[in-house]
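Teaching note: in complex prediction, the entire set of molecules is handled at once rather than each chain in isolation. The prompt given to students was simply: 'Predict the structure of this complex.' The entities are:
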Amino acid sequence: MRDDTVNFSAGPAGLPTPALERARDELLDYRGLGASIMELSHRGPEYGAVHEEALGKMRVLLSVPDDFEVLFLQGGATGMFGMLPLNQLHDGGSADYVMTGVWSDKALAAAQKVGQARAVGSGAVDGAQVRVPGRDELDLDPAAKYLHFTSNNTIVGTQFSNYPVGRGVPLVADMSSDILSRPIDFADFGMIYAGAQKNLGPSGVVVVMARRDFLAQGSKNIPTIFQLAAHAEKGSLLHTPPTFSIYLLRNVLDWVEAEGGVLEMERRSRAKAERVYGAVEASDGFYRCRVEPAARSRMNAVFHLPTPELDTRFVAEAAERRLIGLKGHRTVGGIRASLYNAVRLEGVDRLVAFMADFAQSHA
Amino acid sequence: MRDDTVNFSAGPAGLPTPALERARDELLDYRGLGASIMELSHRGPEYGAVHEEALGKMRVLLSVPDDFEVLFLQGGATGMFGMLPLNQLHDGGSADYVMTGVWSDKALAAAQKVGQARAVGSGAVDGAQVRVPGRDELDLDPAAKYLHFTSNNTIVGTQFSNYPVGRGVPLVADMSSDILSRPIDFADFGMIYAGAQKNLGPSGVVVVMARRDFLAQGSKNIPTIFQLAAHAEKGSLLHTPPTFSIYLLRNVLDWVEAEGGVLEMERRSRAKAERVYGAVEASDGFYRCRVEPAARSRMNAVFHLPTPELDTRFVAEAAERRLIGLKGHRTVGGIRASLYNAVRLEGVDRLVAFMADFAQSHA
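The expected output is the structure of the full assembly:
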């Protein structure tokens, strides 16, 4: 990302400039080898070192417990919607799903193609996703293989601040859009997965962190490529991994580490979200956020202007100030400011200043 | 790839230098937008243009018929080993597989996890893959859903020069390692797939070309993400595609087009292979190729020196001349010179000159 531009895209999203500069500088000649890292064998020492470094940094940055595997796979979170039930439900059993938007809907639908899966709670009020259900509202099956939820909902802008712990049932979360923005308490989890294209890197790689015993109960009656345990056994080298995407992910993890790690990302994330929602609240109703305050996402601030015409104008004028990617999702409309790790606080200040100017001239 | 280096890697393999230079030059600022192409929404106009251009160029370069879809997916060829039978065999039926090495073995094993699949012929002689079976040698089932084969076998260095046409049964081929090196007669095919990391681009994207009626008979009783027809319906935007990998693929396709297209790639490929195998034949038995002449791969020339120690020495001395990636696969040993599209004829001449020098000094 160029330094004069602030990219609020929901994903694929902006990446830290140093991670991209490093990629550019060694794109044609990796460490004097005469070839790009993407032109080298995934079984060779050069890529091998990158692969191990990325896996190791992921583990260190999130304090992943020793009984969890870290995997780099393909297919994004949507791929995991399919692989998760293929592994856990193919040979029987049932799973519970918490419904907080489109991604939960897709995850549940995929599971129901494979086996038994139930919706056990929802964040919808009068048909609109404006909150997340508390754990007491969930109709849980204590015999479920897992309880699935989406930790952050990019489209509607809701986020779980407390996980819906499920009475001994392993949690599984799609954390695509808030991973690495706060620490994770792994105690109740069987598995966490996250497409890279928000907080981690480019699209094309999905990170899976899963407890070994949870992986071990996966079906063996499916093609090996879909067996999560098989990927774990081979250290995510069961087949050719997306080497350049993992290399970029490594660069991003290096940047997170250099900036102070996950706690610093969380501190910045709180500060960025407070400023945007603060600007919404301070606008005397010009900007309106439909999400209940307790469930407002720190990653995707979704709000509306008085009319769709003003929404459109806001996006266009913001782009003139090099504030890009602010258009809301087509199903929700309005504005969506995604505040992922690579979005700098100064960038958010520019957005907040623009919001004030725009409200003043159009109120 | 640096111009003084020749990369004979089997994959991920060398890419054309102009394709990488273009990526480097616009890595941080795509067309003045202030962001990298990998930082932009896959639903936005900028990436959308790249996506359509890549799909269109693939179609034009290979003269893909109108009743075929072109798809860009994730998971590589190994992913397709799983998705193909999930689509075609999940709800019943059987498929035939031609066995010509490790990749065929994996493809068959994956299919047998899903439904019925039979091995119907092999290139093995006394346990070693040294040829490809002729169509008359195949024990074909006229009711099979498809007949699968691997068009080029990277590990052992065999290649089909004529496809094993199956009496009305749709052919399905894994063409990962020879796609875009020669024209394809699509008439007998139901589907062709190819991981990008040899002739097309970086790892992380797999190209699928499939006849619409073949796709349409795919199962709907599997998660949507595994339904090839669903990807076709959404123009390979069913979920977030690996945008940067597809962008690089587009750059490579541009290069192929600028160089003269597939016929020119085929002409060069023949010339490169003739020179390497010619050097083997001219070596008075110092270099030995175990593959029958008619089945020798134009993409991966596999040969052995008199001893494993000499193989190792050959690889090391070649690297000193900046001829890299020549080590044979661990299961076969010896030397493997991969002659994919990005390997220039001058590079092959350097290899051939080195082979003569090495033979002279060590014979």
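Point out the following to students. Chain A has a mean pLDDT of 96. The longest helix of chain A spans residues 261-281.
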